[in-house]
Amino acid sequence: GTTLGQSAAEKGRYFGAAVANHRLGESNYVTTLNREFNSVTAENEMKWDATEPSRGNFQFGNADRIVNHARGQGKMVRGHTLVWHSQLPGWVQGLDTNNLRSAMNNHINQLAGRYRGQIHSWDVVNEAFEDGGSGARRNSVFQQRLGNGWIEEAFRTARQADPNAKLCYNDYNTDDWSHAKTQAVYNMVRDFKNRGVPIDCVGLQSHFNNQSPVPGNYQTTLQSFANLGVDVQITELDIAGSGQQQAESYRTVTRACLNVSRCTGITVWGIPDHYSWRADQTPLLFDRNYNKKPAYNAVLEELNR
Ligand code: G3I
C-alpha cells in the first residue's frame, strides 16, 4: 500500500488518527486525513463534558460532524470515551450514589445508542487505575460512590446499547509488562473474561517520551492481553522526539502490533505535530507543513513488510 490506512488494511488492520472538529475546515488537514487514515477518533468531541454539559442536555453537533465526515469518506470510527473521571462536567461530581448510577447508565445509553452500528470500538471506561506501584483503582467519583462494580456495570450497559461495537478498557502507562498498573488492568480483564462481563478489547494509549520510552517488553504486553481472549488496540500513539530515533520507536510499535494477531489497529493521537496535545515534543507522523516525517516512512515501511 501507499498510505497508512491502505497498508494496514492489507494486513487486516486499521490505521487511525484522532481528529478535532475545529480543524475540519483546513484543507491540508482534511487532505491528509482523507488520504492516509481509515479510522477516526474524536479527540475531545465525544467526551462527557462535550456531549452532556448539563444533566440530560445532550449536544451531538461536533461529534456528529466528525462521524459524518469519517463515514462520508468510508472510514471507520472509534468511540472515545463513555466514562472517564477527566473532562467530566461539574454536575456529575455532585450526584449521590443513586443519581450517579442512573446518570452514568443514561450517558452510556445516549452516546452508544446515538451511534449504534457506526462505531467499531468504544472506550467504555478510560483511565480507571492509579499510577505508581499500588495497582489500585483511581479514587474517582465513580469509584467513591459506586464501588468496585462500576466498571463492569458500564460494560454491561454499553453492550446493551450497541451490541455490535467492540467494548474496550483504555489506559496509559500500561505498556510495560512489569508495571503494577499493567498487571492490575490485566487482572481485571482476566476476571471479567472469567465471569462473563462483556469486554472485547484493551486499548493501550501508548504516549511515549524520554521518561517513558517504548518498553522492551511491549510486544509481550500486547500478546499477554490477547491471550486472555480480547483484542488489543493501540489507541493514542504518539512518541516524543525527531528524526531516526523517533522513527525507530514508531517502527518498534508498528512491528509489535503486526506480530500479535489480535492487535487489530493503531491510532495516532493527531495528524500534524503542531496540533498535538504536546506540540512542543513533535510526537506525530507529519510536521507542521504536513510533510511526512522519518517516523511516517518507518511506519509505512513496517506495514508493508
Ligand atoms: O473547548 C475549550 C474551548 O472552548 C476553549 O476556548 C479552549 C481554551 O483553552 O479550551 C478548549 O478545551 C480544551 C480541549 O482540549 C479542546 O481543545 C481543553 O482546555 C484542553 O484541556 C483539552 O485537552 C485535551 C485533553 O485530552 C484533556 O484531558 C486534549 O486536546 C486531548 O488530546 C487529550 O486527550 C487525552 C485522551 O482523551 C485520554 N488520554 C490522554 C490524552 C492526552 O491527554
From TrEMBL:
Catalytic reaction(s) noted: Endohydrolysis of (1->4)-beta-D-xylosidic linkages in xylans
Residues annotated as the enzyme's active site: E236 (nucleophile)
Alphabetical keyword list: Carbohydrate metabolism, Glycosidase, Hydrolase, Polysaccharide degradation, Signal, Xylan degradation
Span of domain GH10: 1-302
Keyword RNA-binding assigned: no
EC number(s) reported in the record: 3.2.1.8
Keyword Repressor part of the UniProt annotation: no
Top class in the EC scheme: hydrolase
Family, per entry: Belongs to the glycosyl hydrolase 10 (cellulase F) family.
Entry protein name: Beta-xylanase
Organism: Streptomyces zingiberis
